[in-house]
Amino acid sequence: MAKSILPGQGESGDRHLICCGGDGILIAAMDGIGHGEEAASAAEAAVSILKASLDEPVISLVERCHDGLRSTRGVVLSLASIDPKHGMMTWIGVGNVQGVLMRVGARKGSVQEVLLLRGGVVGSQLPALQAAVLPVAKGDTLIFVTDGIRGEFVEDLSALESPQRAANNILKRHSRGNDDALALVVRLTGVRA
Fold first, then answer.
1. What is the CATH number of domain 2-187?
2. pLDDT tens, 56-68?
3. Which of 43, 125, 136, 140 is the most buried (most CB within 10 A)?
4. pTM for the complete prediction?
């Protein structure tokens, strides 16, 4: 994970979560609406809600966040629930936190799966929710980026690059510079081969 704070702000409104629970792994990235302390507070509240409900389906998690964030500015978020035993991932996105999945051994810049994002704000305007389910394998790489990262970041992705190095490079090469930015890169290693 790599992130930057909007110049002039003391705190980033972008947060991430990687947690193991029951039978799976929950991975999420969120962007509190606006900047600074209030955006950070909304994002932190979303992290707390997700941690408290790890084993629920992704649609239920988004609905819990929506209910729990009504008194905040709200967040946009994308999350993925990985079932390593069965090699499956369920993911969902509300707002503009982009999600991509690069398959193990993919050519540079070759992203095979892109998360369908639904417009809205969790805590304010929740769209009709629909999650996607897809198979994942050991060595696949999941990437979430907030809107402080330009969309062409996918052109530089390599399945061979370490996740931390990839996140650092995404931030360095594709940060807009006018917003908080977060790049979360996770290599799936515990998934059934």
1. 3.60.40.10
2. 999 999 999 999 9
3. 43
4. 0.94
